[in-house]
Amino acid sequence: MLLRELTASVDHVRGAGPATVKALGRLGVSSVAGLLSHYPRDWEDRSREVPLRDFNKADAVCTTVTVLAHDWFGAGRMRTLKVYVQDNSARAALVCFNRSFLEKQLVPGRRYRLWGRFMYKYGEIQSSSFEFEAFSEGENPGRIVPIYPLTRDLTQKRLRDIIACALKQYAAHLENEVPLQILKKEALLSKAAALEAVHFPPDVHRLEQAKKTLIYEELFYLELMVGKRAMEKRSVAVREAPAREAEKVLLQQRLLERLPFSLTRGQEDAVAELNRDMDSPYPMARLLQGDVGSGKTLVSFMAALKAVERGGQAVIMAPTELLARQHAENAAKLLEPLGLRIAFLTGNLKAGGRGNLLKALASGEIDIAVGTHALFSKDVVYKKLNLVVVDEQHRFGVLQRHAIMEKGSRPDLLMMSATPIPRTLALTVFGDLDVSVIRDLPPGRKPVRTHLAMESNEARVYEFIRGELKKGRQAYFVYPLIEANAEQDLKDAQSMARRLAEQIFPDYSTALVHSRLDEEEKRTTMERFRDGTVQILVATSVVEVGVDVPNATCMTIEHAERFGLSALHQLRGRVGRGGEQSYCFLVYSDELTDDGKTRLRVMLENQDGFVIAEEDLKLRGPGQIIGIEQSGYLRLALADPLRDQALLERAREAAFALLKDDPLFSKAENQVIAEVLRRAPPFSELAL
Q1: What is the pLDDT of residues 286-326, one digit of tens each?
Q2: Is 350's pLDDT higher than 90?
Q3: Neighbours of 124 (CB within 10 A)
Q4: Phi and psi (nearest 5°) for 162?
Q5: Res. 677: pLDDT tops 70
Q6: What separation in angstroms does the CA of 652 have from each of 47, 208, 641, 664?
Q7: Radius of gyration (Cα) for the chain, nearest Å?
Q8: Domains delineated in the chain
Q9: Which of 596, 595, 549 is nearest to 568 (CA)?
Q10: Do residues 252 and 258 touch, judged by C-beta distance below 8 A?
C-alpha cells in the first residue's frame, strides 16, 4: 500500500493509548500516515563522545556517567530533585524541574549514557535539559537520535517509541511512490527504507540518503501536480478560432512611434513572447516579472493593444486604487491618442457614472478597463474580454484571479510582479505558466544610494534631506504604523507628519497619505506631490507601489527592521525614477540585534531585486512573498525549493517526462505536455 493510503487512526499503533493519541492530535497527527510523516526537525549525533569537562566546546555533552547522589532544594510544590553525576573528566548536577520521578530511574551507583546541554551556574556544571538511558557493557553507545516537534504531555522518548512501533507494524507493507526507474536513476531508497532511516538512521550516510529520497518524492509530486494542471489548462482551453499565423500589430507599431524613447532589450523580448502566445491556439498564461521601474506596465499596454486590434477588450487589474488610477492615467495619455477608449472602474465610482460605464463595457464601447477588484463584481459584464492583466499578482487571492477570468471566454492571462520571484519558486508555484523576465532598466537610471542609520543618528539624515529639498527635490518618509499604538513603541505616520511639518522641516509643505484616508483625499494628496505643491510625503507602505514622481530623490524608512526585504526594495524603488541621484535611508532601532543588522545589509549591498528576493525567501518563506498562503500550495515537510534547487530541476524533468509518456493520457494530451516542457523557462533566464 502507499503511505497516503494509511488513513487508519493513530490509535491502531500498538502502545498509543488515549493520552498519547490526544497529544498527537495537538500536533495535527491523527492517522498512521501522519505519524510516519511526522519527520524529525533535527538529528543529534550521539556517536561522538563529548565529556562533561568540554560542555562549553560543543552543542551538547554525550558521555557515560555514574550517578553519585540525590539532593533536593526548595519546598512544597517548588521542591526539586538534583542528581549528581560524574564521568572520567568532571562532575555535574542534573536539575530535574517537575521530574521528581527520576529519583527512581537514576539510581546512585549505576551507569547511564547521558546527553544534554550544560552550563556553568551556581559554582557547578548544570543541566536541566538532558536525556539518558541505562548503560550496557559491550554495546555500541553511539547513534543518531531524532529530535521531533513536540507538544505538552509528549516526550521525545515517548514519540520515538510510538513511531518505532508504527514502522514495525506498517513499513514492510509500503509500496514505492516514485517509479522504480527513477529510484534507480537517482540512487534513492525504497519508501520503507527511507522512512526507517529518516526516523532511526544507523549512520550519517544513510540519513542523507533517506532525506534525499523523501525530499525528491515531495518535489516530484509537486511538479507532477504542476504538470497535470498545465496539461489540463492547455488541453481543455483551446480557442474557438483556429490559430493564426503571427501578424504585425499596427497599434503596437503606432505606439512605439509615439514614444520619446526606445524599449529596452528586455521589454522587446517580453513583447515578442506575449505576441507569440496570443497568436497560439491556446490562451496565454504568462508571468511577467521584473524589477522596480523595469517597464512592465508599458509591456502590458502592448498586449492590450494586440487584444483590442483582434476585436476584443482588455482589463488591467491592480490591488489599490492608487495604483489603478496611475495605470489608467498612463493608459489614457499613451493609448487614447491611438483611438482607444479607456475606462477607470473602482468600488468608489458613484452610481450614475457606474451605470453608464457598465453599459459601455457590455456593449463593447470600452476597449480597456483599468481598475481594482470592482472589475470582477457580479454586475460587470464584458462584450468580449480577450485579455486579463493582473498587476502585483501576489496581492490578489486565487479566487479573485479566477473571478476576473470567468468574465471572459478563455481569455489570455498576463500576471505581473514587481517583487521578483526566485527561480526556484517560479518553477514550483508558477510552473504551469510561461515566464518572461525583464532584467534591464531604462537607460539613464542611476542606482539608488542606500544608507543605514541608527535612530539616534537620524538628525544627520534630516540634515542631508534638507539639502536635497533646498535643491528643489522632494522626499518620502515611511512609517510602519498609521497612528500611535500603546503596545508598540514605534513611530507612526500621523504623529511624525505633524513633527516633520512643525519642527523639522517647517519651511516645506508636508502631506500625509495612508490606507484609512478616502480615495479622493489620497488622490488629491498624490496629485499635489506629483506637481510639486507638496515637497514631503509622509506615508505608510501604501506608497510601496503605484507612485511615480521623478523629482523625488529621498526615501526614508523608519523602523526599517519591521519591513520585509522585498517591501524595502519596493519602497526604495519609489525614488531613482528621474535623472538625478537618489538616496534611501533605512533607519533602525539602536537596540537592533547583529542578525537584524546583517539582514538590512542585504539592502545596502544589493540593488538586484532577484538577489533580495532570494534572501527574503530564506527569512520569511514563500507564502508571504508571493501571496500563496491562502492556497495551501507549498506545504512541504522536508523539501526546501531554494536549498534543493538541483533536486527540484531533476524532479520536474522526471515528472513532466512521466506525464508525457503515460499511456492513460491521449496523444493530444501528450503533445501538450511536450509543449509545456519545451516552453518551460530555462534556469538561465532566471539566473541570478
Answers
A1: 889 887 778 899 999 999 999 999 899 999 998 888 888 88
A2: no
A3: 14
A4: -65, -45
A5: no
A6: 37, 21, 12, 19
A7: 31
A8: 48-142 (2.40.50.140), 269-279+295-417 (3.40.50.300), 449-606 (3.40.50.300)
A9: 596
A10: no
